[in-house]
Amino acid sequence: MRAVRYHATVVDASSAAPALPGPLLLDALEQVIVGQRASLELALATLLSGGHLLLEDRPGVGKTVLAKALGRVLGISTGRIQGTPDLLPTDVTGVHVFQPHAGTWEFRPGPIFTSLLLVDELNRATPKAQSALLEAMAEGQVTVDGETRPLARPFMVIATQNPQGEIGTHPLGQAQLDRFATMVHLGLPGRQAERAVLEGAAGNRRLDALEPVLGPGDLASVLGWVAATTASGGVIDYALDCVEAVRLLDPSVWLSVRVSQMTLAVARGRAYMQGRDYVAPEDVRAVVPAVVGHRLPRSLDPAALDTHLRSVPVPVDGR
Predict the structure, then answer these.
(1) Cβ-count burial of 128 within 10 angstroms (0-12 exposed, 13-18 middle, 19+ buried)?
(2) Residue 128 maps to which CATH number?
(3) Bridge partners of 6?
């Protein structure tokens, strides 16, 4: 694997995982999205754990720009789907087209055949169109007309959605929501960050100049390093305790084993972003709200969740 270059910085990609450019990825993203470092870190931790990312917020706060920027800095092929009421499942997966001259059916792949798929305004698509992503997100493959085709490795989805209740939106089903490792909110930037966008120092105008931090094939190695990040027994128990604490918040809350798995996986991604080769309790605590948030009732007060998580005992040795 070759060295990874970003501007004048050279990082030896053959060295240990913490030496790889976690901070450089953040710095690159902040050329486009400013004043949102915590959200950017969560987004990167999700993708570097191999998970799918859901961005929810009102229009105009940079969800689509962030999704495009993530594809650029990770140096992987990207595809895009615009969620619309007339979107069909075959618009996502592809379709067989009859070739009269040959008398055969030819498969024309849809935009899902890429490494990083951006689905813009997913909840404006109908539930039938949304369901076209289920098999892909869970199994890394799609089935069209009875024929199963593998997707790229790695394969990740970044979907944006507008807040529920807006005109023309279709709420995502529980199965669809469960496919996303985290849901991240951006919100409005601060005044200085908004000024930077107006002056052209950030935002869409900087997107075209954004350079990849990772080269072709590098992301697969990074994903392997992240997956191998050490998590002690105490940290694993802490992750389980946090998930169990959320389950006890409301009798209607259903958090499967997948949620515990995603919590630890995204915590590994955050540890990498922090330059560590082990997961600390702070990594688990930082990612839990993003992992469970879209799986909880909308009526649940986030402050109550935060208070509940603070009551979970933290491992004494911090590892």
Answers:
(1) exposed
(2) 3.40.50.300
(3) 9
Q: Which neighbouring-strand residues pair with 194?
A: none
Whose CA is closest to 255, among 292, 288, 286, 220? 292
Which tokens sit at 310?
Answer: 């603070």
Strands 182-184 and 78-82: unpaired
Residue 2 within a domain: no
Q: Which of 187, 178, 188 is nearest to 291 (CA)?
A: 178
- 285 in any annotated domain: yes
**Domain count for the chain:** 2
**Structural domain for 299, as ranges:** 229-319
Across the chain, which has 319 residues, the per-10-residue mean pLDDT values are 34 43 84 88 94 87 85 90 94 92 90 93 92 94 93 93 75 90 86 85 83 86 92 96 91 88 97 91 96 88 86 81
